[in-house]
Amino acid sequence: MTELAPRELRVLVAVADTGGFSAAAAVLGMTQSAVSHSVRGSERRLGAVLFDRGRSGASPTPAGAVALAHARRALRLLEVMGSEVRAAASAAAGAGAGAGVPAGPLRIAAFRSAALHLLPRALGRLTERHPGIVPEVRIVREVGRGTAGEVLDGRADLGIATLGTTSPVPPELVGGVLVEERYALVHPAGHPAPRSLPLIDWTENCTSYTRDWWAGQEWLPPATVRAEDDGTVLSMVGTGFGMAVMPELSLVGAPPSVEITDLGPDRPTRSVGYVTTPELASSLAVRALIRELRAIAG
Q1: Which residue, among 231, 243, 292, 239, has the nearest Cα to 108 in the 3D structure?
Q2: pTM to 2 decimals?
Q3: CB–CB of 289/122 below 8 Å?
Q4: What is the pLDDT of residues 52-83, one digit of tens each?
Q5: How distant, in Å, are the alpha carbons of 32, 74, 75, 134, 283 from that of 84?
Q6: Residue 232 sits in a domain of what CATH number?
Q7: Residue 8 clears pLDDT 90, i.e. is over it
Q8: φ, ψ (nearest 5 deg) of residue 51
Q9: Range of the domain at 199
């Protein structure tokens, strides 16, 4: 049976994160030859080359990317195990306030509008109840593998993701819907004919969720402006540059210079939820965050 020790996993992750054997050695306090020996040993036992070596450094091969995802997730589980064992021991000893509660870092990946308008209240409630938890939030574009990819790769414990038939929860993860967002027409306040304006859009608007609806709207032209994010779209609409179709989270705190018009009962929607690994889904900190997310979303 192929087994790698935690030390070997840390070497693989350090090489990937630093982009080279020498840099990894400096981070780990090892010699370059020891790092190289460790990687070669891991490759031998796994039966695959994990890094492409070159003058510019080391980059993971496709097999290496798979190995690294498992390595990061395994190392994270070891950290969680230590934290929860200490919490259980503290609770059993009756160590007073804070005994038995989750503690330590909680890594979260979220797309921009969720990080701005959904996470803050949940994290405020979470850290008030569990001050030992230290949230670490990364803003990730919800395109391609998005936040779910961060969880799959072991870079996040939980991701706030857009879910739907075109982007279901990956089979390796578990998750649930928190919010069903409605889309609305957004246009300059007081404009007499907003549907005549150019359409502004951005990549993360997830039009794949609304493709059928979009195709059936004869009044919606192709987007002539592609912005970087929803904040830019909102700003451009507010200055009278065009109109947009946007989900509710993107419209929280919209300026008075824009007007939001309901698209009627046939308006499109998208689901926003969470994803995590089956192993971390039962951890104290992840369970606590999911409870708070559900509480504010409900």
Answers
A1: 292
A2: 0.89
A3: yes
A4: 998 889 999 999 999 999 999 999 999 999 98
A5: 35, 15, 14, 15, 8
A6: 3.40.190.10
A7: yes
A8: -135, 140
A9: 181-266
Cα–Cα distance measured from residue 209 to residue 212, given in angstroms and rounded to the nearest whole number: 8
Same domain assignment for residues 140 and 154: yes
Alpha carbon 142 to its chain centroid, in Å, reads 8
- pLDDT tens digits for range 217-229: 888 888 888 888 9
pLDDT of residue 89 exceeding 70: yes
Count of beta carbons in the 10 Å neighbourhood of residue 114: 27
- Give residue for tokens 């504010």: 296
What is the C-alpha separation between 250 and 183, in angstroms, rounded? 10
Residue 154, beta-bridge partner list: none
Neighbours of 144 (CB within 10 A): 9
Are 246 and 289 part of one and the same domain?
A: no
Count of the separate structural domains present in the chain: 3
Same domain? For 211 and 89 the reply is no
Does one domain contain both 168 and 291? yes
Between 267 and 208, name the one with better pLDDT: 267
Q: Transcribe 118-171 into DSSP letters.
A: THHHHHHHHHHH-TTEEEEEEE--SSTTHHHHHHHTTS-SEEEEEEBTTBPPPT
